[in-house]
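REQUEST FORM: STRUCTURE PREDICTION
Request ID: SP-0412
Submitted by: Lab K.M.
Chain count: 1
Length (residues): 366
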Amino acid sequence: MNTTKKYASTALAAALGVTVLAGCSGSDDTSAGSGASKGSGSKTVTLVTHDSFNASEAVLKQFTKESGYTVELLKSGDAGAALNQEILTKGSPRGDVFFGVDNTLLSRALDNGLFTAYEAKGLDRVADSTEQDDEHRVTPVDTGDICVNYDKKYFADKKLAPPQTFEDLLKPAYKNLLVTENAATSSPGLGFLLGTVATQGEDGYEAYWKKLKANGVKVVDGWEQAYNEEFSGSAGGKKAKADRPLVVSYASSPPVEVLYADPQPKEAPTGVSTGTCFRQTEYAGLLKGAKNEAGGKALLDFLISKTFQEDVPLNMFVSPVVTDAKLPEIFTEFGETVEKPATVAPDKIAANREQWVRSWNSLVVK
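STATUS: Completed
RESULT:
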């Protein structure tokens, strides 16, 4: 997931029993030092994940204290790239647990048989809406809402109400204001496309995108470029003199802008168009062929523990999935609650994702 989590990406290097390895393509390096190479009696459990994964050192230390296992992180690019590497090495995985496949790509992981079924302890505390696999091949870990964000100052200065729905984005008042990510290369870009499919219908999303293109939508490769270089409301965008006051990002982006500002403002500089949101859920699973299955199962249990779940918001800027986890005050004060996010059934995504992306690409990019 390429999200506002990048704000909090830090080096967890060799501190408090946590090791971070850089993922790379090539068979010589990707398995070196991983849990897959250390045997079933290893006290190291390797978590293969995307670059945006982050957790407090104290929390990972708590896992070691409770379980006896040390977590080793193998970061492997963005979520799509990390998943692709696991597909290429399936049966001989580079680690024990994979974290970061979301509902937009879940079918690829399951269809490729990447995971061994395991019902994590505490799963009864997880919100039913996040569970998408009755066989328990994956465990829900967090949710995030992909939404259009807006630059409050821009709209106040123009005395223009910000858009709130997908339909609003087509209005002439918002021409040349929106930047989004490429649906073929970016997780939030794909989520935004799926949001248009959910709201406009399979027979209507193409016509919608034709109109959005005519209204001046700009498409860039990924979230980092869209949010930090093109969006005028972000701290990075201000430095870059960005000129797009609308961007596809996350409902959690405003609290992040407050948290990392110095001094912290009394009000978030950005807002969320809550009628443009698509719900994203991230999952973790025990990799089939993992050498340290026991450690992997212990880690999956821990990922849905209250300790880890309450650590998630301020480290990865997404929401916990367990019902008894509390959100930090900065989330409740500056974040947006999305009551009715758009969703698409996983089986429908599985059957149509590639076609939808190809169609989108031909309409919007080519």
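NOTES: The radius of gyration is 20 Å.
Reviewed by: T.R.
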